[in-house]
Amino acid sequence: MRVDNHNLAGRSNDPEQIDLIDLVMQLWRGKVTIIVCVIVAIALAAGYLAVAKEKWTSTAIVTQPEVGQIASYNNAMNVLYGNSAPKVSEIQTGFIGRFNTTFSALAETLENQEKPEKLTIEPSVKGQPLPLVVSYVSDSAEGAQRQLAEYIQQVDEKVAEELDVDLNDNIKLQTTTLQDSLKTQEVVSQEQKELRIQQIQEALKFATQANIAKPQIQQTQDVTQDTLFLLGSDALKSMIEHEATRPLVFSANYYQTKQNLLDIEKLKVDTSAIHAYRYVMKPTLPIRRDSPKRAITLVLAVLLGGMIGAGVVLGRNALRNYKPKAQ
């Protein structure tokens, strides 16, 4: 039992052990040094806060455009392609997809500038494509809000320009297609007319050879290509003259094609009325800056200053009480 007590006493006198009470007393005696370090750290933090560049983030939420915002484009597509035109929902999805792609490209361009700008776009809800959250970081709250609105408008105008180019290409393509269709139908109608004249001429030859000058049948609606010669040479000659001067006969499809072509030629689309997005939330005016955080910075300064002051006090005392071990 005495051995245990002896061991305990030996350990308590071990200079390597940390005496918390002594440690606290050392810190208390060196409180002036600690306070000075804290004050210096706070001064440095205040200087940092005074010169540090502020960062403010403005945020907006956008989604696919409303039907009214794409009405002119939708009407143009219906005129161009009729029943084959894309649905309104497909157009809306395509528009916001173009907006997302163009906005992402702009954000990448701004990030790679000599003086980078932080512009971001991402889904508002993870796993869902819409709505989209867009944000911009600036050195002032008003600047962030204003610049974000300008970038959104810039992207919207660029998408509208691209849609205008695509629409004009579609108009040219569809115009060419319809014109080619009309020419083809005219050629077919002309060939049908020439074939009809050739058939009457062949029937006239048979009627002349058979000495049939007058009609041999009463009901002309019963006449077929094989019995056409029974109308007589006189009637057939008159038919040939009539067919030669008769205008081409076209089907209803020809006139529908021509109507579609006229509608396309009169088509005018106001791209300024086309928008690729709709605001769910307009760019906000931030009320709290992202950095520097004044409260956090000052708290960290106090903690860091206190730690440095404590280190100075303890280090100084350790050097003062240091005794080289005997050789």
Keywords:
327 residues; four-stranded antiparallel sheet; Bacterial polysaccharide co-polymerase-like; 2 domains; alpha+beta; single chain
Sequence-ordered SSE layout with sheet pairings:
Elements: H1 2-12, H2 20-29, H3 31-51, E1 56-63, H4 71-81, H5 88-111, E2 118-123, E3 132-138, H6 141-209, H7 233-245, H8 252-265, E4 278-281, H9 294-320
Antiparallel strand pairs: 1-3, 1-4, 2-3
Structure description:
This protein is of the alpha+beta class. Helix content is 61%, strand content 8%. Helix 3 (31-51) packs antiparallel against helix 9 (294-320), helix 5 (88-111) packs across helix 6 and helix 6 runs antiparallel to helix 8 (252-265). It is rod-shaped and about 150 Å long. The two termini are 34 Å apart.
Order of helices and strands: HHHEHHEEHHHEH
Radius of gyration: 46 Å
Largest beta-sheet details: 4 strands, antiparallel
CATH level 3 topology of the largest domain: Bacterial polysaccharide co-polymerase-like
CATH superfamily label of the largest domain: FepE-like
Given the C-alpha coordinates, what overall shape results? rod-shaped
- Mean model confidence by pLDDT: 82
Number of domains: 2
Count of extended strands: 4
Biggest sheet: strand arrangement: 2-3-1-4
CATH class group of the largest domain: Alpha Beta
Which spans have pLDDT < 50 for at least 5 consecutive residues?
1-13
- Architecture of the largest domain in CATH? 2-Layer Sandwich
**Structural class, from helix and strand content?**
alpha+beta
What is the multimeric organization of the chains shown? single chain
State the helix count.
Answer: 9
Helical amount: 55-70%
Estimated share of beta-strand residues: 5-15%
